[in-house]
Specification:
250 residues, alpha+beta, Nucleotidyltransferase, domain 5, 3 domains, four-stranded mixed β-sheet, elongated
Length: 250
């Protein structure tokens, strides 16, 4: 980077130029090149400044104006799965303008819009039912609640999935290729610990689920009913119960 001229350099160039000095004389006197003197004189003549004004963005303007952009972003809020071709069709249907996919991509990036993984929500989910459940839950105490849940494991459940290796190298480990047996655990647990448990090979069926519910009723509820009304909560029980046990809250 060339050295900066002192603050008195510019006034000296303009003063000597107005006095009729030639470009070579000014350059020799001030110790600069003739190209610098010519540029300063040219800019001062056109812009009344030693620097030219900043140039605007070059090239033709974008086909996507502000109105199109607002409608496009609102469309994406309603339909986040739309791809670039869908956006092109939307702009053409709404405004009759043909735009390229790259133009749309640049415009979205300029406005801080990116493509992300979709967070899927169940269409059957009801906010009213969720609020009603939370309202009921607020009336219960921790001692009333008894949770029935299922879990499963095999010999490979505790195997580590990550390993260390240099950058660009995948760590390898030799493991048996056979599939081990799966064991399922169905238990009922409370704030004081679990009170019933059933372990079997394979997966549970509705009969096993109903049996442990009956065991919980016979063993734990008579002792707890003196203190409070017990509430049995079946986690992920819809596939097992199918309405067969109406007193169990799913």
């Amino acid at each position: 980077m060339p050295p900066r001229f002192p603050d008195s350099f510019l006034p000296s160039v303009l003063f000597m130029a107005e006095s009729g000095s030639s470009v070579d004389q000014i350059a020799k006197e001030l110790g600069c090149c003739t190209k610098t003197v010519k540029r300063i004189k040219h800019n001062f003549k056109l812009w009344q400044s030693h620097q030219s004004p900043p140039e605007g963005r070059l090239g033709r303007p974008s086909k996507i104006n502000d109105a199109m952009l607002v409608d496009l972003l609102e469309h994406l809020l309603r339909h986040p799965l739309a791809d670039l071709e869908d956006m092109r069709s939307f702009i053409y249907d709404q405004f009759g303008v043909i735009v390229s996919a790259s133009n749309i991509s640049r415009t979205l990036k300029k406005n801080s819009w990116t493509k992300k993984k979709i967070r899927k929500n169940a269409a059957e989910r009801s906010q009213a039912l969720r609020d009603d459940w939370l309202l009921q839950l607020s009336d219960w105490t921790a001692e009333q609640l008894m949770f029935v849940d299922e879990s499963a494991a095999n010999e490979k459940t505790g195997d580590r999935k990550d390993g260390w290796a240099p950058v660009g190298v995948t760590p390898d480990e030799s493991v048996p290729a056979f599939r081990s047996e799966r064991y399922s655990v169905l238990l009922c647990y409370t704030v004081d610990g679990y009170i019933a448990c059933n372990i079997l090979r394979g997966s549970f069926k509705s009969d096993n689920y109903a049996m442990i519910i009956q065991v919980v009723r016979e063993r734990s509820i008579p002792g707890r009913i003196q203190l409070c009304v017990p509430i049995i909560v079946g986690l992920n029980a819809f596939g097992y119960l199918r309405g067969e046990i109406p007193t169990v809250r799913e």
